[in-house]
Amino acid sequence: MDHTELFLVCLGSGVVVYYGVRLLLFTRMLFPKFWFPVSKSFFSSMGEWAVVTGGSEGIGRAYAFELAGQGMNVVIISRTKEKLDQAAKAIVETTGQKVKVIVADLTNDMSGEIEENLQGLDIGVLVNNVGILPTFIPGKFLETDDLEQKITKVINCNVKTMVKMCKVVLPGMQTRGKGVILNVSSGVACVPFPMYSLYAASKMFVERFSQGLQAEYKDKGIIIQTLAPFGVSTPMTRYQKVNIVTLTAEDFVSSSLQYIKVGDRTSGSICHMVLAWFMQCIPLQLLHSEYMQKGLKEFVKKKTLT
Prior knowledge:
- It is a single chain.
- The chain is α/β, with parallel strands linked by helices and 306 residues long.
- The protein has a single domain, classed as Rossmann fold, CATH 3.40.50.
- The protein contains eleven helices and nine strands.
- It has helices at 3-27, 32-35, 58-69, 81-95, 111-118, 147-176, 197-217, 249-256, 270-281, 284-287, 290-305; strands spanning 49-53, 73-78, 99-103, 123-128, 179-184, 222-227, 232-233, 247-248, 265-266.
- Strands 3-2-1-4-5-6-9 form a seven-stranded parallel sheet, with helices on both faces. A two-stranded parallel ribbon has the order 7-8.
- It is globular, with a radius of gyration of 21 Å.
- The N and C termini lie far apart (63 Å).
């Protein structure tokens, strides 16, 4: 065997070993309860209160219910008092835990008022869930109606609020040496995503900020994790029909909390992990083609009308 053949054999063996190890590590995601066990008292041991932004409906409401069911009192923050009160009433009646309601329009900068309302609470879990799309039907950046206003609202809601909520709760978590922060991103942030450019970029900020923050504070006993789901049937997605890749908010939340110990980023469910891998395998030339962009727009329009 000459040097070229030896090199090719070694290279091939290395590739097989590399992907074999990756496949083995991925199979652990199929059995999170075995590989990444989380006790029933895990979240309540972090602190007395959980804070959930966008907690009146959808994914945020589901997190509030789930964490209250695990023994935590919850603070839910959203802009519509009626929906907040309805959610609070249901949580109290179902779980018996305390619920504090904060009315705030997070497309505006209301972090100061929120911080005042959270003073003195032993906050063990923060879920930065709130987020908005500039428009539900995908479109090119300059085609967005009221673009200047939409830019401000998306950045305030998806980026600024998330950063400032971390600023509010991190000092207490650092002092106690424990805590969990879950920052909800989106599956569309896994690649440069045309037609949702502003939204996808805002969610990529969530991921990078969270990963950097986790590196800074993991030795303080704090878990900071990004959740990047794809389809979840919520008001934001116009309650898309539930199927193998579009989950109910309750199913997504229940699944995602099983992956709290897997690392600084997760899609929250095995089907969304597979979908993320598939998306990253699509050549960007194809994903960014005019044909695909038009197809995406028509597909979402059709789903909206059905």
